[in-house]
Structure formats: C-alpha cells, structure tokens
Amino acid sequence: MAESREDSVLERVRLDVWLDVSCLFRTRSEAKRACEGGKIEVNGQSGKAHREIRVGDAIEISRPLGRRQTLVVKGLAEKSIPKADARALYEDRTPPPSPEEVDARRMERLFRAMNPRPATPGKRDRRLIRKLKGR
User: Fold this and answer.
1) Rounded CA separation 35/132 (Å)
2) Bridge partner residues of 61 (DSSP)
3) Residues of the chain whose pLDDT is less than 50?
4) What is the reported pTM?
5) φ, ψ for residue 25, nearest 5 deg
6) Which of 9, 85, 118, 130 has the most CB atoms around it within 10 Å of its CB?
7) What count of Cα atoms within 13 Å lies in the side-chain half-sphere of residue 130?
8) Helix (H) or strand (E) holding 21
C-alpha cells in the first residue's frame, strides 16, 4: 500500500517553493525571479529555482542596500502554512544591523517620503492633455 504524498515526511523541496512558503518572499514567482537574478545562494553556490533543498542547508539572500540575510533550513513544507509556523522553518543567523546601516535606512525612508513619485494623470487630466495637443 503506497503512502500518500501528504502523509510522507518531506526530504526535499524546490527552493522557490520553500522561499514562498517560509514567507521570505511574497510569491513563488518573486522568489523565482530572485533566484534567476543571482540573489540567492545555497551552501555557497548559486541557487536555481528548481534546486531541491534539505534540512540543514545554508541559504544567503541578497537584500536591498547591500544587506545579506543568512538562514539555515530547519524544516520543509511545500504548501502554505500560517506565518507563525513558517518562521519555524528556518533559523535566521543574520547579524544585527550596525548603527550606520540603521541611519542609512532611516535616511532612505525620509528621502522617499520627501520625494514621492509623480502622480499619473487621471481621466480628466488626460482629456485636457489630448485637447491641448490638438488630437
């Protein structure tokens, strides 16, 4: 009698699936893009999306502003689970940010708040622009 896939203990899971399930990326496709962009390393090697990971693997993720998040895989799952349970799938070994990094992040947030993106024109504005252009 064969054991169903859900009842068996997982030994390996695709990297992009695990990154999504562990809530390190919002979607699997976002995790896949990060893998393809060279932002993920598994055990010191480039992490391809289809690569299978196991418990004990070391994962390093390049984050914005030069931060590198270091993780160790503690558990595997291939289906969505609650966020609290997802945090138990890995141990975060990233050192705390230095005071300079904290200041740089604060300055970045302030800069973005002071210089918001220009708003796209609404329907009325687009009609006015077309009218002014003579179309």
Assistant:
1) 47
2) 40, 69
3) 1-7
4) 0.73
5) -135, 150
6) 85
7) 8
8) helix 15-21
What kind of fold does domain 13-133 have according to CATH?
3.10.290
The owner of tokens 């291939």 is 78
DSSP single-letter state for residue 12: -
- Calculate the dihedral angle through the C-alpha atoms of 41, 44, 49, 51, rounding to the nearest 10 degrees: -150
Residue 133 tokens read as 């252009």
Q: Among all chains, which residue has been given the structure tokens 């050192």?
A: 95
Question: Distance between CA 102 and CA 79 in Å, rounded?
Answer: 35
What distances in angstroms separate CA 14 from CA 29, 47, 54, 71, one per listed residue?
13, 10, 9, 16
Q: CA nearest 60: which of 23, 103, 89, 93?
A: 93
Residue showing tokens 């002071």: 114
**Quick one: CA dihedral 8, 13, 16, 18, positive or negative?**
positive
CB of 21 within 8 A of CB of 81?
yes
* pLDDT recorded at residue 4: 42
How far from chain centre, in Å, is Cα 92? 14
**Six-digit token string for 124:** 């009325």
And the tokens for 129? 């622009």
